[in-house]
Write a structure and sequence with these properties.
The structure is a single chain. The protein is of the alpha/beta class. The chain folds into 2 domains: 134 residues, 3-Layer(aba) Sandwich (Rossmann fold); 61 residues. It contains 9 helices and 8 strands. The chain has a 6-stranded parallel beta sheet. Helix 8 links the parallel strand 6 and strand 7. The chain starts with 9 loop residues before the first strand and ends in a 16-residue tail after the last helix.
C-alpha cells in the first residue's frame, strides 16, 4: 500500500534486484562455494530465499558449516563483483527523489563489505545504509525500523522498495509502506502491494514530480 504522507519522507530500497543486478554474481558465487564444500544443490534452491541474511538461508536449506560456507561464498562473490550491473534508469530516479527532498536509504541483507562498492557506483547520497548485524534480518521488521530510526522519522513517513516476498513482509511488520520492484528477482507475495514495473514507475506511485523527459531512464534488467 502506498500512503499519502506529510512532512519529511524517506525512500528505503533493497540492493540486490532493486538497485543492482547481482544475480550473475550470486550464481557464480553459489556454484563456487558448493564445489568447494562438496554440496550438490542448485542455485534455484538458494535463489528462492533471496532477501534473507545468508546464514538464515543456510538454516532454511539445512546446510552445515554455515560460517565456512559463508566465507567461501563471500570470496567468490568479491571475485565476481564485476559481473554486477546497475539497473537502467535507477540512478536518475534516485536523483529525482533526492531533488524533491526525499531522504534515501538502503536496507539489504548483503554484508557491508560487499554492499558498499556496489552502492558507490550509484553516486547517490544515502542517509542510512542498514546491513546485517546483531538485530534480526528480514522478514523481521528490525532492519527497516532501525533505518527509520536513523533518519529520525516515523515508519509511516517511509516507503520500502523490494523485490522479494520477505521484503514486503518486513515492511508490513514495520508499518512502512511498500512497493514491489517487478524488475527484480521474486514475486510480490500477499497481500498484493503496489507494483513498479520499472524504476520510473516509482515516481508516479509516490507522487514525485518528474522533470526528466518521459522517454528517459526506462528500467530493464
Amino acid at each position: 500500500m502506498v500512503r499519502s504522507r506529510k512532512g519529511p519522507r524517506a525512500l528505503l530500497l533493497d540492493l540486490d534486484g532493486v538497485l543492482v543486478d547481482t544475480l550473475p554474481v550470486m550464481r557464480t558465487a553459489w556454484a563456487a562455494a558448493c564445489q568447494e564444500h562438496g554440496i550438490d544443490l542448485p542455485f534455484a534452491a538458494y535463489k528462492q530465499h533471496l532477501g534473507r541474511p545468508f546464514d538464515d538461508i543456510m538454516s532454511l536449506l539445512d546446510l552445515p558449516n554455515g560460517n565456512d560456507l559463508h566465507e567461501s561464498y563471500d570470496r567468490a562473490a568479491c571475485a565476481a563483483a564485476d559481473q554486477a550491473k546497475t539497473f537502467e534508469g535507477i540512478e536518475a530516479v534516485l536523483h529525482t527523489f533526492a531533488e524533491q527532498g526525499w531522504l534515501l536509504g538502503v536496507v539489504t541483507s548483503k554484508p557491508l563489505r560487499r554492499a558498499m562498492p556496489l552502492l558507490a557506483r550509484l553516486g547517490t547520497p544515502f542517509s542510512t545504509i542498514r546491513t546485517p548485524g546483531r538485530s534480526r534480518g528480514k522478514p523481521a521488521p528490525d532492519p527497516l525500523l532501525l533505518a527509520v530510526l536513523d533518519l529520525g522519522l516515523d515508519p509511516e513517513q517511509a516507503t520500502y522498495v523490494g523485490d522479494m516476498a520477505v521484503d514486503g513482509e518486513s515492511a508490513r511488520r514495520a508499518g512502512v509502506g511498500y512497493v514491489h520492484a517487478a524488475w527484480g528477482y521474486g514475486l510480490p507475495g500477499l497481500p498484493l502491494p503496489a507494483v513498479a514495473h520499472a524504476p520510473r514507475d516509482l515516481l508516479a506511485l509516490l507522487r514525485v514530480r518528474d522533470e526528466q523527459p518521459a522517454a528517459a531512464g526506462r528500467g530493464t534488467q
